[in-house]
Description:
The complex is a heterotrimer.
Chain A: H1 6-15, H2 22-39, H3 42-45, E1 63-64, H4 74-78, E2 84-85, E3 88-92
Chain B: H1 9-15, E1 16-27, E2 64-65, H2 66-78, E3 82-83, E4 90-93, E5 103-106, E6 113-121, E7 127-139, E8 143-147, E9 159-163, E10 170-176, H3 186-203, E11 216-226, E12 236-241, H4 244-263, E13 272-276, E14 281-284, E15 297-298, H5 309-317, H6 323-334, H7 338-346, H8 350-358, H9 363-371, H10 373-381, H11 392-403, H12 409-420, H13 426-433, H14 441-454, H15 458-463, H16 470-480, H17 487-498
Parallel strand pairs in B: 12-13
Antiparallel strand pairs in B: 1-10, 1-11, 3-6, 4-5, 4-15, 6-7, 7-10, 8-9, 11-12, 13-14
Helix pairs in contact in B: 1-4, 3-4, 8-9, 8-11, 9-10, 11-12, 12-13, 14-16, 16-17
Chain C: H1 9-17, H2 23-41, E1 44-47, H3 49-64, E2 77-80, H4 107-114, E3 119-123, H5 157-164, E4 171-174, H6 181-187, E5 190-193, E6 214-218, H7 221-231, H8 249-254, E7 262-266, H9 276-291, E8 295-299, H10 307-322, H11 343-354, H12 357-370, H13 376-397, E9 402-406, H14 422-426, H15 433-438, E10 442-449, E11 456-462, H16 468-486
Parallel strand pairs in C: 2-3, 7-8, 7-9
Antiparallel strand pairs in C: 1-3, 4-6, 5-6, 5-10, 9-11, 10-11
Helix pairs in contact in C: 2-3, 10-12, 10-13
Bound molecules: magnesium ion and zinc ion.
Amino acid sequence: MSEITPDLVRHLASLSRILVTDEEVEKLAGELGVIVDAVAEVNKAVSGDVVPTSHPIPMSNVFREDEVRPSLSQQEALSGAPDSADGKFRVAAILDED
Amino acid sequence: MAKDQLMPYEQAIEQFEVVIGLEVHVELNTKSKMFCGCANEFGSEPNTNVCPTCIGLPGSLPAVNKKAVESSIAIGLALGCQIAPTGRFARKNYFYPDLAKNFQTSQYDEPIAFDGKVDIELEDGEKFEVLIERAHMEEDAGKLTHVGGATGRIQGAEYSLVDYNRAGVPLVEIVTKPVFGAGAKAPELAAAYVRAIRDMVKAMNVSDARMERGNVRCDANVSLRPRGQEKLGTRTETKNVNSIRSVENAVRYEIQRQAHILAGGGSITQETRHWHEDRGHTSAGRPKSDADDYRYFPEPDLVPVVPAAEWIEEIRATLPENPALRRKRLQGDWGFSDLEFRDVLNADLLDQVEATVAAGAQPQAARKWWTGELSRLANAQDVSPDELAITPAQVARIQQLIDSGDLTDRLARDVVAGVLAGEGEPEEVIEKRGLKVVTDEGALVAAIDAALAQQPDVLEKIREGKVQAAGAVIGAVMKAMGGQADAARVRELILERAN
Amino acid sequence: MSELVFKPASELAQLIAKKEVSSLEVTTAFFDRSEKLNEKTFSYLHLDRDKALAAAKQADAELAAGNVSSPLHGVPIAMKDVLTTKDAPSTAGSKILQGWIPPYDSTVVRKIREAAMPILGKTNMDEFAMGSSTEFSAYGPSKNPWDLTRIPGGSGGGSSSAVAGFLAPLATGSDTGGSIRYPAAVTGSVGAKPTYGAVSRYGVIALASSLDQIGPVSNTVLDSALLQDVIAGYDPMDSTSIPTSLGSMAEAVRRADFKGLKVGVVKQLSSDGFQAGIKELFDDTIAKLVAQGVEVVEVDCPSFEYAIAAYYLILPAEASSNLARYDSVRFGMRVEPEGNPTIERVMAATREAGFGPEVKRRIILGTYALSSGYYDAYYGSAQKVRTLIQQDLDKAFSQVDVLLTPTAPTTAFKLGEKLDDPLAMYLNDIATIPANLAGIPGMSVPNGLAKEDGLPSGVQSLAPAMQDAQMYRVGALIEQLYVAQWGAPLIAQAPNLEVANG
Ligand SMILES: [Mg+2]
Ligand SMILES: [Zn+2]
């Protein structure tokens, strides 16, 4: 049986900054439960001494020289922003008033 | 905001053992950012040193700055760390508007450097060894300004503005192991440690190391436990303590605050706190619900850093001497008293004095020049002594001319003035201004005779044993010679006449 | 309707190079058709005639001045909307990026422009490439030109339907678990996923960074090879980009021969779970090769059994992090809830409104797979499965030059058929996923119409990492055998779209 409880879904949704209704939480808990049960079998496949592969083509030491390249103009940088002021990206207050 | 209750410091130390841990973030002074080619530059117009990568636009990718890796390895070596045979970048996931991708590209379980130590000596000579857990590479975040509300602070602001110029600036985060046993000196040790790191990265020239600009920033962890207790107490982390004085004050404050709570039977909340230097206290930071789960995983857009042994040795060869060891060596070599040496350090003149000595001056003479006349002149010009238009070699040369009797102290000061005025090397100034000491005895004797004629009773007084009477004649002779006479020789000649 | 649109890209390129037709004529022909038929297939999210024709005129002018920029000079192309373009919206099929015009071109788009290839438009896709049918596009599904009631595959269903419907001679795709190859198989077209790192990912709106790869979509193997030659190559902007050249794929196609060829059939991907007609066509392909003297052996890849599970942990994990940047601050949609919301609430409301259900599902799944306490069991184990799959493949490729599998377990299913069953949807990628996990190249080539439903099927050729040329060689040989049988590529048998009803 799945360990994906509605509370866990709520926590994960909050970690991922996605607003969810109670209805969605229930639905997601069900769907994710089925998926997690299916994918959990990866555990069975591997033993401790297998090295994980995080990059399919083994490479290392890929660097760029410390050289300055052209940046965007301020206008280009802000061109996609929903809101801006004084050359900066404008966002809602960070803290609740209290 | 409710004011914290504090326990008197001595009492707190008596009852509790203090454990500190320090995380110092060093901004590297590379030309470009950690993962993109934007300029690593302070003070530009907002959002002009940005590109798709450092503002996290869809599709953008990071590329590692080689110099930043070299500087990180250098810092690791200077901290006595081992350099990891394989280092890996990892993503630290959390949402915050100054973090363009909502993850910080950092390092997690495979930092570039680990297991080091730094020796710290406090002012009273007591020595501590601070163990280094790790030093890892990461990127800085952008800068938020909070608008509206009463204070311009984050609390009560109407909205905030983000400038990503700083986003992606390379950082090295240096993390200590818990430091035990400093007792009452824990705050002082914390400050001395941060100073040592700052001096080190400055001497290495891997960072501008200007704390007022945030080039070096400290997060201070403090926990207390009752004396004799094995288990560590709950710690708080005071963030972004941005001056050496603040480090000391913030640690001391947390000790007193926590002691009061614990003594009253309360418990410490594990939290981040903010230090307010102006008000001299810490306040609880935003309780971060995500703080416990950053969901680190290897950065799939980057490949591992596998530094070859030769590369590490090449970097090691470029390391300057450890600043603390260098200071110890120089004080010994020069034979300065603690007071004399501290004067040099406080005025930030170690390099100048060292170079002047290297150019041939006696250490004491070099010290006197830089902490005396040259500091005075610099002060008058509102610059620091090392910004004066005179080189240590020129200072050494002038001192040499004094030692050989070619210049008097007064003449030497004129020569310095000439050099600063751009009149050329000391010799040229002497030539142009005619500042050489008069060594022609005939001229001196004539001047002495003329002076004695004005003060006929002087020779008599000298014969009676009142040798100091010669002073008046010496003064007159020096004046007549325009200061360009050797006062000692004039005195000798006067005494000869009296015999 | 101009007959030009039915010609393969390689032929169009020759006609243009010989100045028998202009790039402008060719581009106009595709535009005329696209503007007329896009409402049937919904291949394109964005079409821009003026910009494409201007680029075509420029290509003609270059040619007139004697400058040939590439072997595909003047041939128009459709871009999957996963690639950033600084002159057109780039949405990745998501509402959260609706109308976003990036301030920069992806490396692939830059190379396409430098190759003097006019860009016709941006093609539809499942939102952030999460899906196998384009039904998860925020803008509505694309349709399969063979049967407008069926899916064109996904996530690159816009590109596959554009090419199979002759709305573009070429297109780009992005393949994270089969998003190029699966759509190619179900639309009777050709699609190739190059070796991971062969084509730059700079400017590719990321799904799962360690799996994503850009590749060509076309109606012939040579056309895909020509396009891969244009878009591949080292890019310092992508740290995972392969620094060495993999050679010319077009050369590999032109020189393809059967001599000494050894082919492996994967035991785990040749029996269970495949539609009977698909299995039959696959056996037919193998028989055709054997008839040419090709040696065929069965290889065992036991770890393939865990490929889908590993994939559906790694992909959501990386995606959950890659998609964190859609937060309403620097670009894209912003939703402000009632009252005086904090930034945290603005972000959460924006992401709620801007992401579709599949994206949310995978972000939450990925967040789970990475969270403390679960990492080792899920993400960590999945990364170990990759190692096992690579070991299986190393062993297999020590015996054979390429592996062959059916590309997809079934032919195109009906729109809506699997929408409420995520797990069933995920099984479409069973044969394509191992290549992404291992980083090796894979391509799908049409091998006939299934007997049950008369819909296209594809055969997949897999080669060792960096040996894309081998994959193309075998793809070209299989194509040759079928063209010899049918007299033309399979796509020539597609129904006439102009009279088709959805
Ligand atoms: Mg850090
Ligand atoms: Zn940048």
